[in-house]
Design brief:
The complex is a heterodimer of chains A (288) and B (395). By secondary structure, chain A is mainly α. In chain A, 74% of the residues lie in helices and 3% in strands. Chain A is built from 11 helices and 2 strands. In chain A, α3 packs antiparallel against α8. Chain B has 395 residues and is of the alpha/beta class. Chain B is built from 13 helices and 15 strands. In chain B, the strands form 2 sheets. In chain B, strands 7, 8, 9, 10, 11, 12, 13, 14 and 15 form a 9-stranded mixed sheet that branches. A 6-stranded mixed sheet of chain B has the order 2-3-1-4-5-6, sandwiched between helices. In chain B, α5 packs parallel to α6 (179-194). Chain B starts with a helix and ends in an 11-residue tail after the last strand. Classes of the chains: A mainly alpha (288), B alpha/beta (395). The A-B interface holds A 1-2, 5, 8-9, 12-13, 15-16, 108-109, 112, 116-121, 123, 131, 133, 135, 137-141, 143, 213-220, 223, 254-256, 258-259, 262, 265-266 and B 43-45, 47-48, 177, 203-206, 208-211, 213-218, 220-221, 223, 233-234, 237-238, 241-242, 245-248, 251-252, 263-264, 266-269.
């Protein structure tokens, strides 16, 4: 590997890591703050991707599809919380796993009935369809860089929301002591609904952004679910900052694992997880 | 009291009569029906493949007036979900509970391997309408296990010849690290290196990971003459798109085993144009069987048939050939198997026969993606037979 290739591989790792962060951030919010093990998180990613496919077919433009898709996903999340997830807060993890696993099956079947089982592509918006030349025979699609920029902006936005706003303060307080926050006059039900809807919207946004490069296909949610849980566990449950660092670590482990030890590439990410958990069983950034 | 007794007696005799009729009907059925167990994926990633195979199978039966070899066809259907963990149980349901005469399945090679074990142990006739694992007609071959599709080795080996003939010397091979991908790369390498080429690097990705960017960077760094890949489904669509977006397609021509561009071209957009692949089927084959098959399929299902539909159709043809060659009356498995082994199938893909290991000996076509179709360019390897290494039937 010469130096240029090495630099490009670093770019690959960063870019992959940032996309993983976008998927995992919603999971860490819902898992860490609300205490819900949401196996259906991958389904929300899948729903986002199919939304992008359907809305792009309707409107002819991915960016417009995303602008329309985010409020739809947010509303869908709020509705799901009101109908189903609200009943889970006081129940144990097994029941949460049962409900959310059931949701995976329902969403997959609905997807199969409405859209079918074929693989579909989503066109990259014309504005970002160019490529940048990186070396004599390798180019980098601009759209991938755009995704990275969006992910960085979202990471900053989430950090600001959680650490610097009143809403974020209430959310953090609510995660420690629900009753106390409620007794201080905060509408905790509404707060939880917002957090859950935000988690769904983040997963769906990740799906929408990834749709042009990954295509949309049956079972796509399952592929991101496991890696998202790995990131949440490595980063420390509930920590947005931890999810970012963990996602980047996973991006590097995966990329350089494939290049440097191809025989063990499938193991690299899990080796990383094992090492981190031996070193810090609570994850890198878990507080308390 | 008397009235009640009478009523009871009437009921009992009516029951007896009904039962007798049922038994008689059962005996009549056993004589001229064939029980077909369809074990295919109807949910999950491969659902569309399972449906296409079923459609193809039923189309041939319909063309024969609802009968195969003079027998009514009775279907028993199980959704295998492409889950190897459930495969043995599902196959046993069909074999032991439903007592099927023939097992037809499936798409996923892992599931097919488990099915084939059940078929071997219970000596049930089995027809594989897709799964390409070399083992099925290789080390694990059996006289009662037939394949109407292909082996992973076949299209890949044919591509190795083509790439060498096109003057490429150094090639990088990319695939998923699972048996079908490894067998494809091995088949390609065998033919390509026999012809004097060299596979300079084999890049394997854990299945079903689709983060190809590190490998694309590696390919740009290695600067091969060409690249050979095995991917299928959504992974194939993503690879071809990423390959083009990285600017590699113009510098390093892309070749693949046929599944790269089957059912995935719409998702690729224009990125697939010009890619060469090898398979036992292609768009625009000019034979009478293909034309009648295609028009019949479109009329029946309002969709264009694909290679999977052809394989389903040929599975039914193969079974029909077996049943026609066996005496009427009770299902004579030995006679059916013998007639199937000797069958010459007039398939939409072109005529084929079976090897001693019961795998099709067939033309492998070279295809080029043009206008969203896999247009036939020529025959890459005529009458190609899988070597069936390790198969005891080959002696």
């Amino acid at each position: 590997m010469d130096f240029t290739s090495f630099l490009i591989q670093i770019l690959n790792a960063l870019q992959y890591g940032l996309l993983l962060f976008l998927v995992a951030s919603g999971l860490t919010l819902v898992f860490g703050i609300m205490g819900i093990i949401n196996l259906a998180h991958g389904s929300f990613y899948m729903i986002g991707a199919y939304l992008a496919f359907a809305l792009t077919s309707l409107t002819g433009n991915l960016m417009l599809a995303i602008v329309l898709g985010i409020p739809l996903a947010f509303g869908f999340g709020a509705l799901l919380e009101k109908l189903l997830f609200v009943h889970l807060y006081k129940r144990d993890h097994l029941q949460q796993v049962l409900l959310t696993y059931g949701l995976i099956l329902i969403f997959e079947e609905l997807r199969s009935l409405t859209v079918g089982d074929d693989v579909h592509g989503v066109a990259i918006p014309d504005l970002f369809s160019a490529s940048i030349r990186l070396s004599e025979n390798l180019s980098y699609p601009v759209y991938r860089l755009v995704i990275s920029v969006v992910c960085i902006a979202l990471a900053a936005g989430l950090w600001w929301l959680m650490q610097r706003t009143r809403l974020g303060m209430m959310i953090r307080a609510g995660s420690f002591n629900r009753e106390m926050v409620q007794s201080l006059g905060v509408n905790i039900d509404m707060l939880y609904r917002t957090v859950f809807a935000l988690g769904v919207a983040l997963a769906a946004l990740a799906g929408m952004l990834a749709a042009p490069i990954s295509s949309v296909y049956p079972g796509m949610g399952g592929s991101v679910l496991i890696i998202s849980f790995v990131i949440v566990v490595i980063g420390g449950i509930g920590s947005v900052w931890g999810a970012l660092v963990a996602a980047l670590l996973v991006g590097f482990a995966d990329t350089f694992g494939k290049v440097l030890m191809p025989e063990l590439a499938g193991l690299a990410v899990y080796l990383l997880m094992a090492v981190v958990l031996l070193w810090r069983p609570e994850g890198i950034f878990r507080k308390g | 009291m008397v009235g009640k007794d009478r009523k009871l007696r009437v009921t009992v005799s009516a029951l007896g009569l009904g039962l007798g009729m049922l038994l008689a009907q059962g005996a009549a059925e056993a004589a001229d029906t064939v029980k077909v167990g369809l074990m295919l994926p109807y949910t999950g990633t491969y659902a569309s493949l399972g449906n296409a195979i079923t459609n193809g199978f039923k189309q041939y039966v319909a063309e024969q007036g609802g009968k195969l070899g003079g027998r009514e066809v009775e279907y028993f259907v199980v959704d295998d979900e492409s889950d190897p963990a459930k495969a043995t149980e599902n196959a046993n349901k069909l074999v032991k509970r439903d007592n099927v005469d023939v097992l037809v399945g499936t798409v996923h090679s892992g599931v097919a391997l488990a099915m084939a074990k059940v078929a071997r142990d219970s000596k049930t006739l089995m027809i594989i309408p897709n799964a390409g694992a070399d083992e099925l007609t290789g080390p694990l071959c059996a006289p009662n296990v037939f394949r109407a599709s292909f082996s992973a080795w076949q299209p890949a080996y044919a591509m190795g010849k083509v790439v060498a003939e096109r003057g490429h010397k150094n090639v990088v091979a990319v695939s998923w690290k699972y048996s079908f991908g490894e067998q494809s790369v091995a088949g390609f390498k065998e033919a390509f290196e026999q012809a004097g080429g060299k596979v300079v690097k084999e890049l394997f990705l854990p299945f079903p990971n689709v983060e190809f960017q590190p490998f694309l960077t590696e390919i740009a760094n290695l600067k091969p003459d060409a690249v050979f890949v095995f991917f299928a489904g959504a992974g194939a669509a993503k690879f071809v798109k990423d390959y083009e977006a990285a600017g590699l397609k113009t510098n390093f021509p892309l070749y693949g085993s046929g599944f790269l561009t089957d059912g995935t071209l719409e998702a690729m957009g224009g990125a697939g144009e010009g890619v060469l692949t090898t398979l036992h089927y292609a768009d625009g084959l000019d034979n009478a069987r293909e034309k009648s098959f295609r028009s019949g399929y479109v009329a029946a299902y309002k969709a264009q048939p694909d290679v999977y539909a052809v394989q389903g159709y040929d599975s039914a043809q193969l079974l029909a050939a077996g049943l026609s060659g066996a005496p009427a009356g009770a299902f004579d498995k030995e006679a059916v198997m013998k007639a199937m082994s000797a069958a010459a199938i007039d398939s939409p893909r072109g005529a084929f026969t079976l090897s001693k290991a019961n795998n099709p000996v067939q033309d492998i076509y070279l295809r080029k993606v043009e206008g969203g179709q896999n247009k036939v360019v020529g025959v890459a390897a005529p009458k190609l037979a899988d070597p069936a290494r390790g198969c005891k039937l080959m002696k």
